[in-house]
Amino acid sequence: MSTEGKHVIIVAGAGPAGMAVASSLSKAGHEVIILNRDIKFGGLAEYGIFPSKLKLRGGLKKQYWELLERPNVHYFGNISIGNGKDLTVDEVQKLGADAVVFSIGAQGTKAIGVEGDSAQGVFHAKDVVYHFNRLPGFGDRPFEMGKHVAVIGAGDVMVDIAHWLVRYKKVERVTAIVRRGPAERKYNPKEIRAVCANMDVEGITNEVDRIKDRLAAVGQNADDVLKGLTEEFTKCEPKVSEASMGFKFLASPKRILVDGKNRVCGLEMEDNKLDPKGEDTVAVGLKQYYEFPCDSVVFAVGDKVDETVGLPYKSGMFITSPNKTGNDPDDALFQAYDETAQTVIDGVFLAGWARKASEGLVGIAKRDGDWCAEVVNRYLSTKSPGNHSDAKVVLDKLAAVLTAHRSHPVGLEGLRILESQERSHWGEDCIGEFKYTSNQEMLELIERGKS
Ligand SMILES: Cc1cc2nc3c(=O)[nH]c(=O)nc-3n(C[C@H](O)[C@H](O)[C@H](O)COP(=O)(O)OP(=O)(O)OC[C@H]3O[C@@H](n4cnc5c(N)ncnc54)[C@H](O)[C@@H]3O)c2cc1C
Question: Is domain 8-107+304-410 classified as CATH 3.30.200.100?
């Protein structure tokens, strides 16, 4: 049964996953309505990927512009979904589209819940990333990072934060705090090139020596582990600051130490050992504690979805159907699920980091979007021919709700005005391309550009 050109799909969220869904479904001839919290499209491709990665960002942007230019794609930026936002989940569902895909990313922050984590000088990585990527609400807020910053984590986000601290903030020292050992680091070796010119190799050598017995206990040779770690410090970008970067391994922060003004002055750390677990290892606390001085802490320990949006939620994730279908990709994994009623929510799907928080790079999010589009197409093909929504009716309903809520959607024309305004500022004092940091300013510029 052909579904070509017959259906209306709402895609909430214009990051790599949502844009992939929109691309596949619009290519199949469907009308696609995109609702996006940010004025600009791209999600973390715009506000997450390090701003100096101009080639990667430029390539994605080009694809996204091409998508938005398609006549059957309708973009509404500056539209947030959630309780008390521009539209509730219920209102989105009642617009009458044939299917709704939520690809709104993972906007919540994971905390490890240690005492003192509300002290001045404690940050969540995503907020810091949003700050240096100039996301409205974050770009124009001061982020006072101090001199010695402890970044908790061992993945690419830790490296991005260190990149910013070392090359742009030019702090004195950055220490990555890693629960397990050097062999369990998770970052891509290519990413470390941004900071490896600033590595305190002597300090790292001493640190690996300090934990050598605990590495040996799980069959890891300290010399080999050190070699593996430091051999990646090649093709380093030229040094632009005197900041030094090091690691603290087998360390779990237990408490944030604060001064009399509730400002971070250190971390109470617990030493860990490694225990084998199958092919892998786990960190086990040794109940030996020590103080580690620093004046800022950034938690780069992953994200979770925003439970306040109004989609069924459990343990950091939106709930998807537990009833496997056997299809490839499996429809169940993309279907929103109401656990109380024990049924899938008809016509509601999830894709990208909204489905699996912090799961991989742009390519993975895009593939997830492509898979989701396949699942949606399968769902649409079960509808009888002729039983489909009318894009004009859905768009009129949407316009009426947004007017009633005094929302200010930004469409393609507004995006074009904004793009040309931002281009005229390129080269100004910010990392990568110039971006406005306030929605108000962007909306005013767009209004002026239209008149
Ligand atoms: C710090 C960092 C650096 C990264 N660097 C790289 C890199 O160098 N290379 C790489 O390939 N990958 C990188 N990634 C990974 C990549 O950014 C993600 O894989 C990808 O962006 C996830 O896509 P997504 O569409 O699922 O979510 P997102 O990109 O988060 O997009 C979500 C979209 O939903 C919108 N939205 C959010 N909430 C709502 C709401 N309530 N209502 C409506 N819309 C909403 C947002 O405005 C956004 O447009 C990085 C990620 C991070 C966090």
Answer: no
